[in-house]
Fold each of these.
Amino acid sequence: MYIKGVIFDLDGTLANTLEDIAGSMNRTLKVHGFPLHAVDDYKLLVGRGLDNLVTQALPSKARQPEIVSTCLAEMIADYNVNCLVKTHLYVGINEMIGELMRKSVKLAVFSNKAEPLTVKIVNKLLAGVPFVKVAGAQPDFPKKPEPAGAILISNQMDISPSNILYIGDSDVDMITATRAGMVAIGVSWGFRTREELEENGAVRIVDKPGEIVSIIHHN
């Protein structure tokens, strides 16, 4: 296994985005008189795109298409303004990225967050990093765990999927990596549990960003 590239999930992997997501969703819910959720509750709601987040955050009786559509538009508008209020990189991410760059490892980001928001956050928090691609959810293109986006990025990297680490914090990421033929690496500092990562194909779970460098160093 010779690793030449790394694809990162964003939320819960590179950056702790939870408080800003929760804030925007709760403000949207409040406007409509719906119950709010604790910040930690959002750990189970993120990862499958904002449309899924909004649907799951709404009371079951309110999950009609027109209400979901209205709340989704309002949540995205709020989040676009407030996505970088409390969002920050996890400790050690900058140093890990720097080490990978020094090793000439090709890097990319692939998120189920809407692509404009994904690009906005990455450009702010990781300015200057020469990512081959920063990809998010797009209309009419399958979200993770469908592997099409990951495979497309591997083609843009000009690296075989088997020579790429896919780093993420959820079942969605591990399934995506496995389906794409990549090496699935879970991170323990994100929004989901070690058990979820192990059950969905993680080859290894790392507890600190520096361990990702060690995986590549030993290949």
Note: The longest strand covers residues 106-114.
Amino acid sequence: MEAAMHAHRPAEGNHPFAAVDNKKLAMWLFLGSDAMSFTGLLGAYSVLRTAWAATGTNWLPMNHEGTGPIHLPQILTGINTFLLICSSVTMVLSLKALRAEQMARFRGFLFATMMGGVGFLCIQAFEWTHMVHSLVPPDAPSHSVAAAMRQGPSGFGATFFTLTGFHGFHVFCGVVLLGWALRRGFKGVYSSKNFIGIEVVGLYWHFVDLVWILLFTLIYLL
């Protein structure tokens, strides 16, 4: 009986995730759950916008001057999107350089990726300031993002700042991860035989970039 059980016991190498590093598997599981969060937010945005479009009125709220609907900074945000895409490219080049033992190029490209994230956050902060000034009169009791989220009956302010803010938080976390990885890179932790940590950070960064492309298309272009 014991011999039969041993014969039918599955070999460890046959496990479906046996060849996947634990760190990579954990990151994939996290990204899968995080994708569900973004899916829910994007779904709510789409439902609200579709329902408002059925009323025949503009989804974008009026500016505080009452001269017309606010204008989304498509050109500025397009530049910001391009910057984030370029940072994804430098992330790939950083991992490629690490595998080739080109440590100076590895650290340089990783630093460029981190600076791309910092630049994205700076431009988004400028855009938020512009949106607040467009939505809330300067002499309002509360001239803030919270006040801008309450402007307009369509719910645009609430959904816009929630979606872009949630994504911005992910970018901030990515910048922190990149800085941590860069510090370890200068300490000589990574090499052509030990690159899983950089690969995991890269997975997260590519996910953040992909989500932003979806947000940019849905919010600014459609």
Note: The longest helix spans residues 103-135.
Amino acid sequence: MLALFSAIVYGTSDYAGGRATRSAPLLTVTMYAQATTVSLSVALLAIAGDPFPPGSDVAWSAAAGLASLTGIVSFYEALSKGEMTVVAPITAVVSAVVPVAVGVATGERPSALAMIGVALALVAVALISGVTGRTARPSSPRILSLALVAGIGFGLLFVFLDRTSDDSGFWPLCIGQLTSFPVVIALIAARRVPIRGIGGAGGLAVAAGALAISANASYLLATREGLLSLVAVIASMYPATTVALATTLDHERLTRPQLVGLGMAVSAVAMVSAGA
């Protein structure tokens, strides 16, 4: 349930951030979102009162923050110029493959039903992404490449957060954000990107950041209770929410294979959950 909740919230966050980048500079939107996640992660840590973690947890947390930033910047850039109904699922299938491969390689052995669900999930997001060649509007190679990089970034985020110890509490979220936020500020300063006067995009960016930290916290708790190879796949179903919002609010069209893929995604979540 924690992984499923994180998927729903991730998807909503991605929609908000993607919409913001269509009317405001990418780095500005990222800065607003990151500033929000930093503030909320510090507040969450203050409430939890977790002791400072050892060096290994700090290293994994910092790596998770940089992986997340890579994923977010690439993802927002792809969404600013491509269709959400294509970009989000492509990112998801890659972000699911990375932790599954790492989990199995490190000795995790999910049940047969769960592994069938994993395979079904990968097919589902491939269909949603338009692997059959039937999409409402073709996507350029650059957009597809950005979606691929974003998927790798998010997949590594899932892996790195899983590598932190249970005793580290919510420190991984805070350390990760404190690592990535200065990078965003440095990029904005170097490129002299405007940070004011972005109107409603600022509110969407703040909402994206608040939702993202909620999703990350839920995912972190989920990985401490379940197998990485299963939790990450459930979390990677977030495109269902993004696609639903894009089709409902932005009137993006879905082809028949994409609709079939969404149905398969729901079935895959049920199978992975039952076989966990």
Note: The chain has one domain: 2-275.
Amino acid sequence: MDKTIPIALCYATVEQQWFLELELPSNSTVEQALEIFKQQAQWPSLLKQPFTVGIFGEVVANDRLLQAGDRLEIYRPLVQDPKDARRHRAKYFKKR
């Protein structure tokens, strides 16, 4: 009997957030979890763009082994550099 581990898969857009709980074989990698996610195709628009993944806020490689309780997060590309956004806000509020 193959042991399984519970993980969570999270993804968010500006409009909506998704949270999916999965039971995977204990030796599963990030890439294998993403393949299961793609097969379920709950978020097809995500599959058309490049993305980065992380676990609890730390970017990880696709070959990383998952552990029980991991929260696998799918990150969208940034629309604007955070430093540029801060500079823009600082200029705006300085003029006021």
Note: The chain has two helices and five strands.
